[in-house]
Specification:
The protein is an alpha+beta fold. It has one domain. It has helices at about 5-10, 20-35, 85-90, 130-135, and strands at about 40-45, 55, 60-70, 80-85, 95-105, 120-130, 140-150, 160-165, 170-175. The longest helix has 18 residues, at about 20-35.
Length: about 190
């Protein structure tokens, strides 16, 4: 990278991040769109009671908490989200899901367009509450998710992800099959 490109990056760096509220709302709408494409009817509550979306399909309801994360630091490949498990425990455990939306600089981005969030991509991690409850073995407390992707690959489509949950200094590595697995919501 030459000096001119570096200067451009420094000028747009403050545009790389979206305000937390805007990012959260955008993530909820992205997840709602994915669920609509999978045949669900979607409801969004006016009051935040721990669940962001209620999805219905074949007369069955599903309760979904959405957390949207963007890179920690410029193009670091590391994401973090904090989840309060007690807010999820108020809903039927077999029908409650957490969806993490990872918002990151996409393969179509360049030094010239990196401040444009239309060049960003999203990945979705779908976690059943039952999986979370089994790991943490209690219904309250805050969970810190750390998600990493390896950006140093010959081809950007070969990106590999690592999802690590941490609670009370205990780590748990999740499988990559959870990515974009909206199908598991109705299983």
């Amino acid at each position: 990278m030459n000096n001119k490109q570096y200067d451009k990056i420094q000028k747009v760096k403050n545009r790389l991040y979206v305000k937390r509220h805007n990012l959260g709302e955008a993530g909820e709408y992205l997840v709602a769109g994915k669920l609509l494409l999978n045949g669900f009817n979607i409801y969004k509550g006016a009051i935040d009671d721990g669940i962001d979306l209620v999805a219905r399909k074949r007369k069955k309801f599903y309760f979904i908490q959405v957390k949207t994360c963007q890179n920690i630091g410029y193009d670091s490949g590391e994401f973090m989200a904090r989840i309060n498990l007690s807010s999820l425990s108020k809903f039927p455990e077999n029908q409650t899901f957490l969806v993490l939306v990872l918002h990151y600089l996409g393969s179509s981005s360049s030094v010239d367009n990196m401040g444009d969030h239309n060049t960003y991509e999203q990945e979705y991690v779908v976690l059943p509450y039952v999986t979370l409850k089994d790991f943490f073995q209690k219904n309250n407390g805050t969970v810190v998710f750390r998600i990493y992707n390896s950006l140093i690959m010959p081809y950007k489509k070969d990106i590999k992800w690592l999802i690590k949950l941490r609670y009370n200094r205990t780590d748990f590595i999740l499988d990559e099959f959870l990515f974009n697995s909206f199908w598991q919501i109705e299983v």
